[in-house]
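The methods section describes the discrete structure representation at length, but only in general terms. What matters is that the chain and its backbone geometry are given together, residue for residue. Nothing conveys this as quickly as seeing an actual entry. For illustration, here is how one protein appears when written out as sequence plus structure tokens:
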Amino acid sequence: MPLRSATEFPVTPDAEALETTYQECRAALVSANRSRGILKAQSDRRGVVIAELQRELVELEADLADEARAKARLHALNAKLGTVIRELEETGDAMVGLIDESERQSGFWLVEMFRRLIEQARRWRTVKARAAALASEADAVRNPSNQLGERP
């Protein structure tokens, strides 16, 4: 039944049309109440959908924030790793250079070459220790765990 405006019904109906007017008013009221119930149900469903979408949006935002933090940590690790690799290359090159130079030297200069070679070997060990620490840090980023040692 289509909705009818209150202005369609007489304010003071005739006595002989009173029963008919009452039935028409009642049918219009029942129809309006049904429509109102349908609209409320639709509104409630929309509210549930909106709440679910908001919850998913919050979860997505948290996931993206975690992803951004992980990427930032990985970029920092990559930068540190690049530095360590450069230092290893420089130290290795310096050691090779010292060995090459020591082959051409003799006497006192040879002792000086060994001293410098030992310094480079110590530097090499220090840089390798930093590389191992970075590997542990990278493993921690790759396999995060909570305080109980479990994966989240």
Summary: The CA atoms of residues 48 and 78 lie 45 Å apart. Residues 146-152 have pLDDT under 50 and may be disordered. DSSP finds two helices and no strands in the chain. The helical segments are 18-104, 108-142.
